[in-house]
Amino acid sequence: MEPRIDLLTNDVGATITKRLYHVGQALQESPLPHALQELVELRASQINGCGWCVDLHSRQAAAAGETPTRLHLVAVWRESAVFTEAERAALALAEEGTRIADSHGGVSDATWRRVREHFDDDQTVALVSLVALINAANRFGVITRMPGGTYTPDALAELTD
Question: Is residue 26 a part of any domain in this protein?
Answer without folding.
Answer: no
